[in-house]
Amino acid sequence: VIDMKLADVILYNNGEGAADGNNYWKKYKTPHYIYVFTALVLLGIGIGVVSLFLCSSYLDELGWEMFLSYLHEPLILLLNILPCVLLVFLFYFATGRAWAAFTFPALIVFVLSLINYYKIRIRSEAFIAKDLALIGETANIISSYKLEITGRVILTAAFFIAGVLFSAFLLRGVMRGKKTRIIGSMVLVLLCALLFFTVYINEDVYDAAENDTADIDRWSELEVYVSKGFMYPFLNSIPDAFPKPPNGYDEAQAEQILDSYPDSDIPEDE
Fold it and tell me: What is the pLDDT of residue 61?
């Protein structure tokens, strides 16, 4: 009997085998949504943890120590995981489907994390927001290297596949109520915007979020970046992708000055 009730909580809104149709499922509505929301929170946390797991491997021999350092820094852990959880729920309210709530945020986060993973291994440089404008150049650079499929990459793919299967088959049903979904989506968008402008691009917060547990070179920009995870410093780098001209800048005058220097080859002895 207990197993049947648990199955009914999981399969809520399926409607098969119910003697009195939809009335049978009403008593399972609240338990079902508690189950779904709890599962989505855990899946969002999982996405963030896997992203940190990839980020920590910038040095193979120190990767595990770096990953453990994140677990000892609650602020860094929160700032990296929170965007993943919020993204999961944004897609859940927008689509009404749990499989989409996991699949699309996981794809976004894992693709960015893998780009960062391989860029660090190939170029010893972190992937930042302004690199998105150079995605074609980045693809050409990466294509000239043989990308090693490491254990971390395989574990990331395994978690993604497992998450898709779990959310598709064990988080069944559709969130009904168009008004609820619209309001929920709007609230999440506003919350994300508020956190982005007050926390994620706040340089005082960025400076305060130091990883005191990690053994890094404080003068290394890459190591400082990695010590804060990936999602957090990546979001913090977004304003740098839109540089502001200095006071008194005149584009026409700048072009005129630039044009005064003719193009020429660099002399062979220089």
Answer: 60
Decide: 127 and 234 in contact? Cβ < 8 Å.
yes
User: What Rg value do the Cα atoms of the chain yield, rounded?
Assistant: 24
Is the pLDDT confidence value at 252 over 90? no
Q: Which residues pair with 88 in a beta bridge?
A: none
Predicted structure pTM score: 0.84
Distance CA 87, CA 53 (A): 19
Read off the pLDDT of residues 74-117 as tens digits, 9 standing for 90 and up. Answer: 999 999 999 999 999 999 999 999 999 999 999 999 999 999 99
Burial of 230 (0-12, 13-18, 19+ CB in 10 A): buried
CA atoms within 13 A on the CB side of 62: 13
For CA atoms 137, 120, 106, 40, give the dihedral sign. negative
Residues with Cβ < 8 Å from 189, sequence gap 6 or more?
90
Distance in angstroms between the alpha carbons of the first and the last residue of the chain: 84
In whole angstroms, what is the distance from residue 232 CA to residue 177 CA?
33
